[in-house]
Every structure is written in C-alpha cells, then in structure tokens.
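I hope you will forgive my troubling you with a question about protein structure. I am sending you one protein, given as its amino acid sequence and as whole-number tokens for its backbone shapes. Thank you for your consideration; the sequence and its tokens are set out here:
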Amino acid sequence: MQAFFTDSNLWLRIATVPVYVGAIVLIAELLHRYTDTKPEYVRKVVHIGTGNVSLLAWLLELPAWVGIISGFLAGIIMLVSYYLPILPGVNSVDRKSLGTFFYAVSIGISVAIFWNLNLPHYGVIGILIMAWGDGLAAIIGQNFGKHPYTIFGNTKSWEGTSTMFVVSYGIVSIVLFSVQGNIWQTWAVGIPVAIAATAVESIAQWGLDNLSVPLLSAGLACALNQLAISS
C-alpha cells in the first residue's frame, strides 16, 4: 500500500473526491427531477453518500488540507443553496434547515482536528455515524416507526432511535477493529459513544445534529479509547 501511495499519484487520489461527490450530487438531482423519489430520500442519498468521503480520504491517505478546503467550499455551496434553488435535490425537504451546511462544516472540522493529530479514524467514526446512523434512522423511522415519542419538540420513533444506536455502535466497532484488532476496547467503546450520539441526535434542533453528532462522537470515541488503552 505504501508503495502505491506516493507523491506522484497524490493529485490522482485527490481527484477522486470531487469526482465522487459530483457523482452523488448528480444522482440526487436526477432522482429529484426525473423520478417520483420522495424528497427526504433524495436528501438521504446525498447525506449518506457524501459522508463516505471521509472513509475514502482515510483509505487513500489524503492530506488534511483536502478535507478542510472541501468542507469549506461545500459549506458555502450548501449555504447558498439554502437561499437559492441551485441544488434543489440536495435541500429537497419540506422543512427549512441548515443541516446540510452544518454537515459540510462538521466534515471540515473533523478532518482539521483528527487528521492533524494523526488519528483520522476517529474523524471517520464521527462522520460515518452522522451519515449512516442518522440517515438510516430517518428512513427506518419514517417507514416502520410505530412507536413515536416527542422530546424538546422533536418527534422521533423508537424504531428510528434504535437504528441510530445499533448503526452507531457498529461503525465504532468496525473502524476500531480495523485499526487495533480484536481487543476488549474495540467492542466496549462503542456503547457509550452510541448512547451519546443517539441522545444528541434525538434532542438537537435546526439541523445542529449534523454538527454536534459527528464532533461529539469522534471526540468521545477518541478520549474513551485512548484512556481505556492506556489504563
């Protein structure tokens, strides 16, 4: 792997990010314009798909500045799209929310922190929890949620909340297993992280869960895992 990832192919690796993101946005816009796909599902295509950029950046060993600049530019685009319909598929939800803007910002901040600490897998954990945990929780909750509850004005379902917890735990465990193998910390750390991520996602307002969940999950996973390993 190290022989492949050389300076000579750095720009080729970097180019995969805009190509991948562009493909995700294009798919969303095509679904929005030419199919009967529900607006919320179109948005989840973007939500889950763009979150995978963090995994791509980690596996391709991209430098931190790529993620920071990408998050900054994406944030500007999402903010403009909030007020102007330049990407209707991305913001195709019935409720007005700055969630996509906060999501882009959280990716940039996560990369800035954890790539520069040489601990990129924790940033990946936080972003993937928001991408897959929140994304699948919304889909499951809307389609199979039979037991709703309301907290701080947010109406959720226990089915969706359970999905958020299970997916969050799975992401933490899988990522840590890939880094440190089959040790007890790998399987234990995900429990409090999943609880915290699920709780914050349940109570956050105005799309702020897209910012708070990734950063909280990444920071908590890092702190708990490092503490458990050193003890």
Q: What stands out?
A: DSSP finds nine helices and two strands in the chain. The mean pLDDT is 88. Residues 185 and 229 are 7 Å apart (CA to CA). The chain has one domain: 7-230.
